[in-house]
């Protein structure tokens, strides 16, 4: 495999892709952009970039960002991961926790054992097929998206959609990890996907959220902070169960006096 020129070529193409998407990283504090690309079995691929937060520990690492995008899009058929920077021990531990059976072939590249690497083609589109017109439709779709959640530890599936001005919707679900601290919520999942695909916050219209087991569910504090840092006037619609209309709140009203670094 190592001496096969076609395989070497795929690796070089993956490295090129990760270099191309790295500039999308939101790194106003460290100024150190980082990215990963996940190659899927059919050659489509998913970018993930580092998204820093003024509330530093809420920073989303690139691998977690890309993996949670894959789960929300219902595509866990990852056959290779390429990093813009060789992953540190924590990132390698995160990768192992995903149980994808990936094996390191060089410092920056991990591939599925015995898989033939597809030639990278187009990025996987990060959108749902449907475009809801009214808030109740958006909420219904968020409930359906929640079925993709990976929540074996909490058994608390969450689904959301980040709708853009043009009507398209980026899905988000919560994605749990054996190391609970490396779990990501549905809302930050969708936000991280938008940033990784270079979709500017000025084009975000609304977020629809359904915590299917809890009719009083709201975004957690960490999600409120990240949303506020990117789009503090974003509309959030929250599921209040099938007997009630969804509740509407702006992000800056969900987190008055949120922290910013000017
Ligand atoms: N969760 C979300 O996805 N969004 C929120 O705003 C609240 C919490 C998820 C994270 C975790 O998987 C589970 O719900 C329990 O915290």
TrEMBL record:
The keyword Zinc applies. InterPro entries: APOBEC/CMP_deaminase_Zn-bd, CMP_dCMP_dom, Cyd/dCyd_deaminase_Zn-bd, Cyt/Deoxycyt_deaminase, Cytidine_deaminase-like. The keyword Metal-binding applies. Keywords: Hydrolase, Metal-binding, Zinc. One of its GO terms (cellular component) is cytosol. CDD domains: cytidine_deaminase. Coiled coil: none annotated. Pfam families: dCMP_cyt_deam_1, dCMP_cyt_deam_2. GO terms for molecular function: cytidine deaminase activity; identical protein binding; zinc ion binding. Residues 9-115, 133-262 form the CMP/dCMP-type deaminase domain. GO terms for biological process: nucleobase-containing small molecule metabolic process; pyrimidine-containing compound metabolic process. Homodimer. Belongs to the cytidine and deoxycytidylate deaminase family. This is CMP/dCMP deaminase zinc-binding protein. The lineage of its organism: Bacteria, Pseudomonadati, Rhodothermota, Rhodothermia, Rhodothermales.
């Amino acid at each position: 495999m190592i001496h096969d020129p076609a395989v070497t070529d795929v690796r070089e193409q993956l490295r090129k892709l990760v270099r191309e998407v790295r500039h999308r990283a939101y790194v106003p504090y460290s100024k150190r952009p980082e990215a990963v690309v996940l190659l899927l079995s059919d050659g489509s691929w998913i970018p993930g970039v580092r998204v820093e937060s003024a509330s530093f520990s809420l920073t989303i690492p690139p691998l977690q960002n890309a993996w949670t995008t894959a789960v929300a899009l219902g595509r866990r058929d990852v056959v290779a991961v390429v990093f813009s920077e060789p992953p540190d021990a924590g990132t390698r531990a995160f990768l192992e926790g995903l149980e994808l059976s990936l094996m390191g072939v060089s410092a920056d590249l991990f591939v599925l054992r015995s898989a033939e690497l597809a030639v990278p083609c187009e990025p996987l589109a990060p959108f749902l097929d449907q475009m809801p017109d009214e808030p109740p439709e958006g909420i219904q779709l968020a409930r359906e998206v929640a079925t993709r959640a990976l929540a074996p530890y909490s058994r608390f599936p969450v689904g959301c959609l980040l709708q853009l001005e043009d009507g398209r919707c980026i899905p988000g679900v919560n994605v749990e990890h054996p190391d609970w601290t490396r779990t990501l919520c549905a809302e930050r999942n969708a936000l991280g996907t938008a940033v990784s695909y270079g979709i500017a916050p000025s084009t975000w219209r609304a977020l629809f959220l359904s915590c299917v087991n809890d009719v009083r569910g709201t975004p957690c504090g960490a999600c409120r902070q990240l949303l506020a840092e990117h789009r503090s006037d974003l509309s959030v619609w929250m599921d209040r169960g099938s007997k009630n209309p969804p509740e509407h709140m702006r992000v800056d009203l969900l987190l008055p006096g949120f922290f910013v670094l000017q």
